[in-house]
Structure formats: C-alpha cells, structure tokens
Amino acid sequence: MARTDSVKEAEGIMAIPGATDNIDSATFEQILEMDDDEEEREFSKSIVYDFFGQAESTFQKMNKELCIYTHTQREATADTHHSENKDLKTLSELGHFLKGSSATLGLTKVKDSCEKIQHYGQKKDETGTKDLADDDEALGKLKVTIKEAQEEFVTVEKVLRKFYHDEG
Amino acid sequence: MGDLKTRIRSKLLRKNSTTSTAPAPARSSASSAGSEGGQRKAAQRSGLKSASLTKLPEVATTRIPHPDDALSQSAVLPRRTGGLFGIAGNGTEESLEPKSKPSLDNTVTTTASSPPPSPTAVRANAPQVTLEEPTPIHIPVQPPQVSSESVVTAPEEPPSESEEPSELPPSTRSTSKATPPDLVRRQSLVTTSNARIIKTLLEPPASGAPFTTGPPTADYFTAGMLHRKIWVKRANASATLVQIREDDLVDDVRDMILRKYNNSLGKTFDSPDLTLRIVPRVDSKDSNSTAKGKYGDRPLGPEEEMCRTLDAYYPGGQTVNEALLIEVPQRRTPKASPRVPLYYTHHDDTRPYDSQSEYFPPMLPVTNPSPSATTVHSHDSRQSIAHPPTHSISVMQTGQLPPLPSPGSMRRAHHSSRPKNPRHNTASPTILANLPTVASTSRPQARPRHDSSASETKHSIVPNAPIPTPPVPTDPTVRQTSSPPTPRIASPRPDKKVKKRRVIETPSLPAGLLDGSVPPINVLIVEDNIINLRVLGAFMQRLKVRWQRAMNGKEAVDKWRAGGFHLVLMDIQLPIMNGLEATKEIRRLERVNSIGVFSSGNHEAPNLKAGNEIKEEDTLTDRSLFKSPVIIVALTASSLQSDRHEALAAGCNDFLTKPVNFVWLERKVKEWGCMQALIDFDGWRKWKDFAAQSDTNDATSKISTSYSSIAPRSKPNTNLSPTSAANAMNGKMGPTAANGVTTLPKPKDEEKKNKRKSLGVVAPPTLPEEDSPPVSTKT
C-alpha cells in the first residue's frame, strides 16, 4: 500500500530494469525521502555510495577469509579446528554486518544472501534453524553464497548508479 | 395577622408588576440573577403576565415544606435559598411553559422532602420572615410563600420574627446570596435565549431547564424567532431536541445534529454521512393512513425542508416519541485487532485527551509521588528499575508476546494494517483515561441536563488520577494496564495513519511541525554499521532530536554513564560487547546506583547497604543526570521471537526490526520520549522555553544540530537535566566541576571529533574507541 507520492518517488528507481527484484521500494524510498533536494539527492546518494564502498570492502574481507580458510584447511588437519571455527565466525559477522546496511537500504537480495552467509558462518542452514553437518558443508555453501551476494551487489549497484545518473 | 397577609399579598402583586415592566430596583444581588432573567422573559411577552400570576399560589404551595429545612438544616440553607430564588424567578414563567412545571416541582419537593418536617410551625415560618425582615431586598421573592402559608399558619409569624436574627446571621445570608450558581446560570441562559446561536441553546444548563426545554411548540419560539426545536434520536437511544430554523433544510439539520452529538458522531462522521429517517404517526388511522401511504417510513432527503416535512407528518407538532431517527453508515474503518476491542470502540473519544493532556497531567505524580513507590525504590534496589523492564516482565508473565512491533521483514504485506497512532494505546499511563471516557461516550444519549463544559472538565481531570500508579511495580493490575507492549502494538489507527506518515516523511517538512510532537530527548544510537548509523542519525536530525552514537556495546555503556540519555537505540549484534551485554550492564549500573523512575538526584543513597557496596567504578558521577532508567529499544536484525525474548529479558524495553521503518522509529521515539519527558518535566519545560526562543531567533533547521553540538558539554552541569536547554546554554561555558569528578577521560581526540562533526555527529566525552568491528566501519 504505497502512498501515491511514494510510488512516484520509487518509480524513478523501480523503473530501472532489475530494480524490482533487488530493491524493496518502501525501504529505499524512506531513505530518499530524507533528501532535502530531489534533484541533488545529496543525502541518499552519499549513503548509497558509502554502501558501495562498504560492500566492496566487506566482500574483499570475505574472500580473504575464504582464502585463508581454504588454505589453512588444505594444509592443516584437526588441530587447526579452533581457528577454522573462528574464521567461519568472522565470515558470519561480516555477513551480519553487510546485512544490516543492505537491509537499511532495502537491497533485499543482497541482504538475504548476507543473512545466509551469517547463518552458514554459524554452521547453520540458511534459515539459521538447523545445524549443518560440518565445516566443509558450511564452507561450500559460503563460497556459493558469497559469490551470489557479490553478483547481486553488482546488479543492484548498477541500478543505483543509474538512478543517480552515474553510469560510470 | 390579617393585615400582614394583605401586606404580603400587595407586595406580591407589586413584585409581579415590577418584574414585568421594569427591573426591580430593590432586588438584592442574589435575587437579581434570577429575577433579571425572569424579568427579561416577562418583558418579552408581557401579555402573558396575568397568566403567570394565577399560577403563583400553586407553586407556593409546593414550597411549603421547604422552610422547615432551612431551619432544621442550616447548612443546607444556601442551596435552599438558591432554589427558592430560582423558583421565584421562574414563577412568572410557569404558565408559559406548563410542561416544564412538573420538573420544577420535582426539584423542590425532592430537596425539601429529605429532612423530616419540623414539628413546630413556628420554626417553619421563621426563615421566611427572617428573609423578609432584615433585608427588605428579599421581599419580592418571599411573598409567594408567605402568602400561601399565612393561610395556614399566619398567627405564628410574629414570634418567628423575633427568633430569626439569631438563627440567620447576616453572614450566612450573604453566602447564600453569593453561592447559588443556579441563578447565575439561569441568567446567562435567559439573556441569550433570544438571539444566541443555536448551539448554546442546544446545551441547556442543568438549571436552565424551564426555559430551554420548553416544548418546541412554544409560541414565542416559532412565531417570534423563526426557530424551532425538533426531536431527534439515535436508534435505541433517548431523544433529544435540536433547534433549527424554520427554513432549514434537512441538510442543515444534520449539521445541527452533529453538533449535538459532538462526541459520538461528530468525530467520526460528517454531516452528509447522516441519514434522518422519519416515521409517520400511527395513531389516527383513517385520516393518516392516506398520509402514511403518501409519506412512508423513509429517509429524508437532504433538500427537504425540515419544518414543512415535520408539519406534514405530525400535524399539531412533533412529540418525543416521534423523534427523527439518526442513522449513520457502517464504520468504514477496519476493525481493531481483537486484543483491544475496547479501545477501538472508543478511540475517537480518547484521542483529544491524549493530545490535550500532553505533559501536564503527569506533573501530579512527579511532584507527588506515591509514598509506596518511593519506599519501594529506596529499599529494594532491584525493584527500583522495575518499571522500564516491566514490559518485558509483563510479557513473560502473561506469556503473551506482543505482536512484532516492527513489521520490518513483512513490511509490504502489513503496510496497510499497521497501527497508526503511536500515542493511542501506548505505554503511557494516559491510556487509563479510556476508562472514564468510555462512560462519556454514552453521554450524548442519556445526557442529563448538565452543563457540558462542566462534565468535560470532570472527565479531563480523571485521567490524572491513575498516572501516579504505573511506576509502582508492586501492583500487577496496574502494570498490566500501563505496560505497553500488547495494547501499543495493536493500536489501530487506520484513518489517521496516511496523513501522519506523509507529514513526517515529506522532505519539505514545516519547520515547526515536529517541535510539539517529538519530545526533547537525548538519544544514543548504538550501531556498528556506519550506513545504518548515518541513516538513523539523519532521521533523528529530522525529528530534531539530539543524538549521539556509539559503535559498540562498551562505548554505549560509557556514553550512557556520562548521563543525560533518555533513549538508547541498541543494535544487538555488536562487536566488543554486544547489545544485550551492554543492556545488562546498563541495567546493573542503574540498579546499584538506585536509579528508579522517580529517583531524582537528591534521592541519593541514604538507603540501605547497597549504597555502601557500590564499587568505585560503578558509581555514576552525576546522579541528577539520571532521572530515570533509560529506555532501551533493541534493534534486532532478526525477526525471530527468541531473539526478542532475549532482548526483553536482558532489560530492553522495546524492539524494532531492522531495517528500521521510520514510521515506527518515530513512533517509538515519540512514545518513549514522551514518557521520559513526563518524568523529567522540569527539563522538558526549560527546553520548551528555549526552543521557543530559538525558534524565533533561528527558524532554520539548524536547531537540532546546535543542540547536538552543545548537549554533550552541558552534561556535566548539575541539577538540570541535559534536556534542559537552559543547561545547554550554560554548557557553552564549558565543562563544570562536576565533570572533573567523572571517571571518564575528557575528549582529547580532536581529529576524531571533527571527523564526527562532518558526519553530523558530535562526540561527547568518551573513552577512546576500540577499533574492532570485524569490518572497518569507516568507508
């Protein structure tokens, strides 16, 4: 039940291909509504671009963690178990972290993937209710999901850049 | 005695003639009210004067028992005399309005009948004479009685004369003159009866019955003034009179009806919504059977002329039983959640009290806290913080978890059904105002002849009463009613919502609009994600709420310890110390420092051993900055119920689901902020003054920014809460001695500060931040 002017405001971005799947218009529009100037969109733009930076760095860290983890796993055996868990935990925290900001912006797909990352990092299934069998299963799912999340991020980033007339 | 009788009679006659022609100069101030009214009326239709005279004896007879009371119960005298005057004043009206007479007699006899009649006729007569003798002013009033009585007990009057002065000292009489409110009211009524707008006439004061409640067919009304009264009623309710003009259309009548049913209909319906149904007379079969066929039981069209239609239907005048039926359309608004059926039905009536009462009613409890509350706080430090967690406790106890307060994840689906008005069914104790107002809803129907404004004040006072109780943690029922979770969440305000939201979220928000609605609270936003922090902070800015940030739980606790926060928006999953731990720590510190709901700074720890046991590091520096336990609203990314339980159990008062919906956020800020403002009323008032000043000085939206930059420094100030703007101004002078005592290091890191400033955030004195979010939060 979007309000009329919300619809109007959201139309701008929702009209862009790929936006409807990736962005929750109601959430994103409440960010837009905080813009003082609808042309400049100074506030929301800075928020969104900050998010770009944050997401990129977070994905970097995730990948780094993944690398470390797979690397250590390949080399070491049971005695590294503790540190492995810690790495998974780090991934979970990273997932949670990015989940927060993507949720705030209404980037639903990224958020959902991040939530999965968070759960997998805790060695739970994607809804966080059941335990996963072992670290390997979690790791496998994490790899897939992080990749998905990155792709989703790239998609939504394009949409957002388009919205802010920044095709670069 | 015979000549006394005649004397009195002649006086009586004189009295009536004077009243009909000119103001009675001899009247005392007490009687003038009534007599003036009567006199004006009489002047209006002097032709009827003679009729009134013939009626007089009758009236007087009914009063015979009356004097007994005056003597036997001197305390009652003022009222009695008031009644007397009133009757005397009305005496001339009796014949004009025969229908109202019974009620008049009623009042007299009922008041008079309660005490047993005095055995001695001597005493019985005394008051009459006394009133007459010492103050001749009363003569015009008294004669009717005396004349009637003198027939029976005339010989006994002289002794009573001698007796009276001792019985009725002048003082009592003067009070009796001054007091009768009836007279005053009647006067105002009568003077206006002629030309006043209809509405005033529609609400006749209780005592004014004789004049205004006269049957609608009263000649002088219809003939003289083109006004007319018609009977209307709602289904299954008692009828009421509505005054209309001769040429009014049904449409106009609907307006009048809405005014009359101001509460029950006026707040929900517009006049075009109403339908008036006319039911033809059934009695005279033959002649009206045709008429019945002609005009059936039907709704009236808005264009019909009311009076003409009525005349057609009810030749000879409409009676009470023929009142027009007021029909209203079915409620269009969605039904309330079954949880709070009561509130829904009456919510229209409660709203004004919410807004009217604003901050003021709660002053009572603040200035006058119930002893039980304070003692409980001082002796049981655990309970002293019981109030805010009350919600969680009540949730646990009732086993009834509030519906998710923040629709968050299911936002789209629930968008339309989301509760509307935050202040309606909320935590605020004012919700108890519902109870009295429930009664008031039925008022329009069975309304006694009361002055409506009087009854309204009565109702508006009532809400004050329950307020002192909520903080007392010992009364489970009170806690139930005052604890917010369940009713708050369910509050259905569909009609209001869209408008509200628009107002809040429109970028071009009028500057002053939010001033009144968002209390001047100090918010601590605990968020590790800079994006979320900025968004929340910007929204706070928009609400003109001062805020600070903390990036992890530890920082949150430290900032809280500096004092002055009313509300904490606490992210749960945080680095270093998560939100739950931070919440627990804050609650623990509140406990050991005995920060209760009404613990003002001076309420120090003259209490028990706990005071001695407070460790150095746990001691809060400036107790005046902790007026009450801080409200902690958890921001949970998870929509799992278990997480909510956990948050409540940790001591959070409330929770919001991320992504935070701004409507909900604003609601929470208002809701809890208002509660805190109630507790810290002084601070609020000072802020209010300051805000008013700076509004005139600086109309831009910079105000909140300036607050936020000032506020942190103002904290060290003693006595005043940091909410106080006066304090904020003082704060410009820099930290005071109080700050020196703090265990917290002063801000050294200017760079950090500037950086924050650029973000629109200003850092208060804090511990140096730990850098440990798993991800760098800086972009």
Note the main attributes of this structure.
heterodimer, A: Four Helix Bundle (Hemerythrin (Met), subunit A), elongated, B: 779 residues, alpha/beta, Ubiquitin-like (UB roll), Rossmann fold, 5-stranded mixed β-sheet, 39 helices, 10 strands, disordered C terminus
Provide the fold topology.
The complex is a heterodimer of chains A (168) and B (779).
Chain A: H1 4-14, H2 19-22, H3 25-32, H4 42-75, H5 81-105, H6 108-121, H7 135-163
Helix pairs in contact in A: 1-3, 4-5, 4-7, 5-6, 5-7, 6-7
Chain B: H1 2-21, H2 29-44, H3 49-62, H4 66-72, H5 77-91, H6 101-113, H7 121-132, H8 143-153, H9 157-167, H10 170-178, H11 181-193, H12 198-202, H13 209-212, H14 219-225, E1 227-234, E2 240-245, H15 250-260, E3 275-278, H16 285-294, E4 298-299, H17 306-313, E5 324-327, H18 341-357, H19 363-367, H20 371-379, H21 381-384, H22 390-398, H23 411-414, H24 434-441, H25 452-461, H26 476-482, H27 485-490, H28 494-505, E6 522-526, H29 530-542, E7 546-550, H30 553-562, E8 567-571, H31 579-592, H32 608-613, E9 631-636, H33 641-650, E10 654-657, H34 662-679, H35 681-697, H36 703-714, H37 725-731, H38 737-741, H39 750-758
Parallel strand pairs in B: 1-5, 6-7, 6-8, 8-9, 9-10
Antiparallel strand pairs in B: 1-2, 3-4, 3-5
Helix pairs in contact in B: 1-2, 1-8, 2-5, 2-11, 3-8, 4-6, 4-7, 5-6, 5-10, 5-11, 7-8, 7-9, 18-24, 30-31, 36-37
